[in-house]
Specification:
Helix content: 25-40%
Distance between the termini: 44 Å
Number of strands: 7
Radius of gyration: 16 Å
Strand content: 15-25%
Largest sheet: 7 strands, mixed
Shape: globular
Order of helices and strands: EEEEHHEHEEH
């Protein structure tokens, strides 16, 4: 449903074990693939992380990310040197309706409107291929298990998950 192919997709996930050493992660993808130089980790500072509150961690991570985006835009930094825009054309959230609602609340509080947002929740038994998609204002839906878009979105989500878990493991080992 996007007007054009996205030039910047930001994907968010978080990782913790019962609230211990919580880490949030953002990965970025563009037309040429993953843009690893723009990946970011967020060590959770709020009580939400210590409590294992996924919704609270998502709120903290998105607040920090998009507050910084607004600051960079105000300073006239509309694009990076590689011409990838700072403002995403699509936001993917690893999670369902609760995470999407948290993300929408953060964006509304910051005065950011019109950014397409999609939540991706694994289906029953956490089987790949049974993901449910949550778009604000629409009923949850699934894509056909052979749909190339599903494979692409799974790859994005899995990369965010890998990056979040790696950050969490590194933090735990310290």
């Amino acid at each position: 449903g996007l007007d054009a192919a996205p030039k910047r997709i930001e994907v968010f996930d978080n990782s913790h074990i019962q609230g211990a050493e919580p880490v949030g992660a953002m990965i970025v993808a563009g037309p040429e693939g993953f843009i690893k130089s723009q990946y970011r980790k967020f060590n959770m500072r709020s009580a939400a992380g210590a409590e294992g509150d996924d919704f609270g961690m998502m709120r903290e991570m998105l607040t920090r990310r998009y507050t910084r985006l607004l600051k960079e835009e105000a300073e006239g930094q509309a694009t990076r040197s590689d011409e990838i825009p700072l403002r995403p054309d699509l936001i993917l959230i690893d999670g369902g309706q609760g995470q999407v609602s948290s993300a929408l609340a953060v964006l509304a509080d910051l005065g950011i409107h019109g950014l397409p947002l999609v939540g991706i929740a694994k289906g029953e038994d956490r089987d790949a291929g049974r993901e449910h998609f949550y778009i604000p204002g629409k009923s949850p839906f699934m894509l056909d298990s052979k749909d190339p878009v599903l494979y692409y979105v799974q790859r994005l989500r899995d990369e965010a998950h890998r990056f979040a878990i790696g950050g969490h493991r590194a933090r735990r080992s310290k």
